[in-house]
């Protein structure tokens, strides 16, 4: 049997304890006084799901934001909503990360002169539904690689020099529990998230002595449009929280644990998931994705063709 990493297990339990502690001690002012990162926060993929919830949660804690996503109207709407609700400053950058390196140059220019305290590399793309690799349109595969791997890598490279100068900053990389083992029918998505884990862990060793915090988040399922392929993942439950619940929990772990699922119930799920060996987990993942594929074929696809 594959041994359970005691360090990660400890961090998982700590995440749960921090969540409990939050309900008794944390309020905005206390958090700000302890906040070691200050300055502006950048959130990618922020007009929906986890990114949007992260943006709101950071604004609630009185942090100014740079919002980066692909849909201009959604960005403008979000910026207005955040500013009016939370009295913080926002800036928006419209960027389609599927366009690759050229977009990174544009973002770098627009971020020039801003002091970035935290970068939340949240943007991510998943298959439309669980598919065999040969079924996924070539463009979709290439977009997933550009968005999940390229954006995180290049965004990090953009903010590192100024964080190094100040000897202060945090990079939060939103990965996925799909990186815990290969995941058939979501093969490429899971592989990109395995990259994010490796990238985060090596980056941390490179820069931790320079005052830069690198956090890797591995959530299990969250109720967002990313999982629209299955009705089972579109209902809130203990194991499938909505995005605001997830973000509120995950933000509390920053600066405290370097790897986390970000949400206490996912921490328990992580513990039980890691007990069987990789091969067993891979097969269980395949079975699970066949169920989701059927959900899509029977429920979602017929509705889409009807429209
Ligand atoms: N949901 C889950 O169950 C789950 C589980 C584990 C990990 N995660 C990870 O969590 C992160 C957020 O996922 P989510 O569920 O919140 O996703 P989501 O609901 O699909 O939202 C994705 C966000 O990214 C933006 N976006 C998509 N493609 C983009 C592109 N090419 N360029 C710029 N922005 C783009 C979207 O913009 P629009 O508003 O214009 O669509 C949206 O704001 C991802 O990294 C994902 O892999 C999610």
TrEMBL record:
Molecular function terms, GO-annotated: oxidoreductase activity
The protein's name: Inactive hydroxysteroid dehydrogenase-like protein 1
**Which CDD domains does this entry report, sorted A to Z?**
17beta-HSD1_like_SDR_c
Does Acetylation show up as a keyword for this record? no
Return the InterPro entries for the record. Answer: 17-beta-HSD3-like, NAD(P)-bd_dom_sf, Sc_DH/Rdtase_CS, SDR_fam
Question: What is the source species?
Answer: Nesidiocoris tenuis
Q: Does the keyword Iron apply?
A: no
Q: Where in the cell is it found?
A: Mitochondrion
Q: Which family does it belong to?
A: Belongs to the short-chain dehydrogenases/reductases (SDR) family. 17-beta-HSD 3 subfamily.
Q: Which UniProt keywords apply?
A: Mitochondrion, NADP, Oxidoreductase
Q: Per the record, GO CC terms?
A: mitochondrion
Give any Pfam family that matches: adh_short
């Amino acid at each position: 049997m594959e041994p359970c990493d005691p360090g990660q297990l400890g961090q998982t339990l700590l995440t749960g304890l921090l969540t409990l502690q939050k309900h008794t001690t944390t309020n905005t002012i206390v958090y700000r006084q302890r906040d070691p990162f200050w300055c502006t926060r950048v959130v990618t993929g922020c007009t929906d799901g986890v990114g949007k919830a992260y943006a709101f949660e950071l604004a609630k804690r009185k942090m100014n934001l740079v919002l980066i996503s692909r849909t201009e109207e959604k960005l403008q709407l979000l910026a207005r909503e955040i500013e009016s609700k939370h009295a913080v400053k926002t800036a928006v950058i419209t960027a389609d990360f599927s366009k690759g390196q050229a977009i990174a140059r544009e973002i770098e220019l627009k971020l020039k002169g801003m002091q970035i305290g935290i970068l939340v590399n949240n943007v991510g793309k998943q298959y439309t539904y669980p598919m065999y690799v040969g079924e996924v349109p070539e463009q979709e595969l290439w977009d997933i690689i550009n968005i999940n791997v390229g954006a995180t890598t290049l965004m990090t490279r953009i903010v590192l020099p100024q964080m190094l100068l100040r000897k202060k900053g945090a990079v939060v990389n939103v990965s996925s529990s799909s990186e815990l083992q290969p995941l058939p029918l979501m093969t490429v998505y899971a592989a990109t998230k395995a990259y994010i884990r490796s990238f985060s862990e090596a980056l941390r060793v490179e820069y931790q002595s320079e005052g830069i915090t690198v956090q890797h988040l591995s959530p299990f399922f969250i109720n967002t449009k990313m999982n629209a392929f299955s009705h089972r993942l579109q209902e809130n439950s203990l194991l499938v929280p909505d995005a605001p619940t997830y973000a509120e929990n995950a933000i509390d772990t920053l600066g405290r644990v370097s790897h986390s699922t970000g949400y206490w119930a996912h921490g328990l799920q992580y513990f039980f998931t890691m007990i069987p060996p990789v091969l067993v987990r891979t097969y269980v993942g395949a079975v699970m994705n066949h169920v989701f594929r059927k959900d899509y074929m029977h429920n979602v696809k017929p509705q889409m063709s009807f429209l």
